Amino acid sequence: MTASCRKWSTNSERLLVILGFLFYLLNIAICCELKKENMDFSPHRGLHEGRYRSPSLQDTTMSSSHTQKNRGDSTPLPPINERLAFLRPSRELLEYYRKKIAEFDEEHEDLVKQLEQYKATFEEQHKLQWEMRQREEEISELQKALSDMQVYLFQEREHVLRLYSENDRLKIRELEDRKKIQKLLALVGTSEGDVTYFHKEPPNKVTIPQRAVQSGDPYARKLQRSGQAGTKQAPLKAPGKQDRSKEGKKEDPQILLLQVEALQAQLEEQTRLSKEQIETLLEDRKVRVEETQVQHQRDQDKMKSMTDKLNKTQKLLYESTRDFLQLKFECRANEKSWMAEKDRLLRELDRCREQLALSSDPEQEREHEREILRLSLAEKAHRHSHSEEVKSLTEQLAQAHRLAEMYREQCVTLEDELGKIREEGDVGREIFKVTLNIGPDQDLAILDAVRQGNKKTQKIQGELRNLKAKIYGLENELRIG
């Protein structure tokens, strides 16, 4: 916007310089022609000196009236080509304009190059902003993926804890089964043969063998501790209940102790896992809150900077538009003044040519002098009548001013009397209020006095209206006259 405004201003300045130079050359050419004509006809100057005085006065009055008429007329100016057609080209003028045009072309090329540089800079800035936005989106996606991975990790750890609890339950059950087998063997007795067990159907659950963790990972150590003592569902299912219901015996204290230890270890692991989940969620929440605050602050700063840029751009637009309109107005005013000057010079040139033609022909010169003498006598009579009329109008104006001053003084005095009468009326009203309880004759007298005061007031108001109407009539007559 500033570049365009500067371009407009430079173009207007160039136009002003070119037009000024053109009219300067026109003035020089006219002066040279006048000097040549005066030099060619200098011997006849002493003979016709008295003859040229009255035509110059007449031509001056005619030129002044014509100039005022041209200034008062609001006709559009002719185009530049028509105005330039009256000029006489020369080598110096052509060289000057060629030089100016070359300078303007070079300046235009420089401006175009600067615009291209600005365009490349803007494109690079836009590209960097776009890449930064893509990186921010990738970072947000990675953060989301990290949060999902943490959730999956906690789910897997819970699943591992459930597997360890199932493993502990199966171990306890295996221990119970061995004890039952030992009791049954003790009741039946030992035999030398082998004992073979057959399953009609495969077991519903698969036992996963437990491996020892040798790494230094804290998560692996936690899993190992949870695998050693994690049995949460063992007391719920309690596979020995059917045997207790059948046999009606108490469970072994060693089995109960193992179940309690497994439950305690599982509870500790669950508590630790819950704490880690809560800490992770709080940390994730803190990170998200900080990111939201940073993004909000960034948006606020960006909005503030954009608002400041918008205000600066609007101010620059207003100033550039105002300067452009001012330059345009000045350019048009200069063009009008130059055209008026050109018309005046052309009229003077025509007048000089007419004088030259008259000096060459004595008969036409005598006729012209007679016509000028008649016009001068008519003009003197017209001026005399005009001066008399102006004098009479001036006297009428002074008399009207005196009458207006007199009427104003009368109005002021009448207004003073009206104020006094109103004061007397107010006093009469006060007296009437004080003497309300006096006889009827005094009441009638007071009423008569009040009526008379009202009549006087109305009469004075009517006179004031008449005087104001007269004053307004005189002022209107003065304006019309």
UniProtKB/TrEMBL annotation:
InterPro entries: CCDC77. Keywords: Coiled coil. Residues 94-145, 390-424 form a coiled coil. Residues 55-67 have a biased composition (Polar residues). Residues 46-81, 210-251 are annotated as: Disordered. It comes from the Eukaryota. Residues 240-251 have a biased composition (Basic and acidic residues). The keyword Coiled coil applies. This is Coiled-coil domain-containing protein 77 isoform X3.
